[in-house]
Amino acid sequence: MQQTWWQASVFYQIYPRSFADANGDGIGDLRGMTEKLDYLKDLGIDALWLSPHYPSPFLDCGYDISDYTGVGPEYGSLDDFTSFLHEAHARDIRVVLDLVLNHTSDQHPWFIESRSGRDNPKRDWFVWRDPAPDGGPPNNWVSIFGGSAWELDPQTGQYYYHAFLKEQPDLNWRNPEVKRAMWEAVRFWLDLGVDGFRLDAIGTIFEHPDLPDHTFKLPPSEFFTPNMLDLDDYGQLMRFQVRQPGLHDLMQELRALVDEYPGDRVLVGEDEDVAFHGSGDDELHLVFNFPLMRVERLTPMHIRANQALRLSELPPGAWPCNTLGNHDTRRVWSRYGDGANDAALARLHVALMLTLKGTPFLYNGEEIGMSDLVLSDLSEMRDTMSIFQYHTMIKQLGKTHEEALSAAIESTRDRCRSPMQWSAAPNGGFSPPDVSPWLPVNANYTAGVNVAAQLDDPGSLLSFYRQMLRLRRATPALIAGDYHALHAHSDDYLAFLRYDAASSQRCLVVLNFTDAAQTVIFDQIDKHPRLLFSSHPRDDQPLALDWLALAPFEVLIVELA
Ligand code: NOJ
After folding, report:
1. Does ligand 1 have an atom closer than 6 angstroms to the CB of 383?
2. Predicted structure pTM score
3. How far is the CA of 200 from the centre of ligand 1 (A)?
């Protein structure tokens, strides 16, 4: 079967505020992104996902949008956007935008109108409810970002619902006018030529209309902080607030809209539920395999189990989508490193992303080994969620400043959002030396963690990424092949086959997850091995698969003919 572009592509997520600052104001912008397209092309990227570039008061780092068809002035103008898009397309790079359907900013004109009076025609565009008999919130629902999910509007005497910050009121998707208005915005960008959307927080679009109280044991909502949300309990905890009926119909409607456009525009869901694939070709094209990354350590056992389950769960025709990091999580380097072998592990992890079956999503900066930014002071923090958590811990939970600060530093999403490190120049070459970037640059830009230092160094992580991306592009089995796990017993190494019937190419991938040499025996494979790639020099050509010696953390990719 012929693959579509989004099945064959490697995606790269750009966090616009931190990617490239062309006008030197401390904030990344569209001109900066345009200037870096050659870098991305050379890296081997096929498609970009841009975190929100829209006008926003920036209470949730752009995920609070105040104009769905605009461009945030700090990023440039609509003309800057169209020339960015044009230049990306000229290099055969597709562009996917972030689309936040669940909520707007409280500064969006729709909400300003809606809150202006109970009789306002847009009142019902958001989720308004009367107070409980005691005057408190309508029920005990919590915001994912902490505290109650309800905010009182004193002027009109009703509460509005917000799954996230109180500055992010939820739209009422049961109102057809909301849908119409949002679909217009979707068409606006599709008409401009964007290649699709990453759909933010789709699970929270609808909530239970009868507002039943949660019965799950919850702290009173004012005591609730996001770090109490144990992910295993998330679905249970948020039972009436997430994944409510209506969601799949809505996603199918959006798919039908997108399908009206030529060029296979893509929809990528920020959710892990394979049900969002619908029956395989009528809902979302891609749904992130988040369970893969929801562990503190990536082990062969975990990866194998994840793949077995994930691939078997997908409806026929659906295509997998893997990632290890984004703007909400710790950086791959820090999260999956062990402190001793971080550089080797970073290589292993990107090799995993680029050889597993499915569309990989990489996150800007991981290719040079950017690590978590550790802030020391609340005043440097930009992530409202962690600032809110800090205050709740002090005011409601009686914690000390030190305790609350260290929890906020630990949980803040700022740590993965620091400016891209382009060179060893002051500010990592992101902004001019006399400017303070919107978030501090990680100090390790002076220690080789920058693009310029790694670009021409064949031994750098960046060179490893480029090599692996080139190899993948030239190897049909790695792009399109079926996945078949081998050696299920081993938690030291991961071995699997990828077989592409169209090209009849078969590849064996072996990843040594330990710091020790391993000998692996593939005595069932009767094909001739041809080395495609090894992260370590090998002197055993031709390879003997019945007694294969692997170096510590070796990445080995072999074609079987
Ligand atoms: C998911 C986004 O990835 C995250 O950054 C944001 O805060 C929430 N959705 C709310 O929009």
Report:
1. no
2. 0.97
3. 6
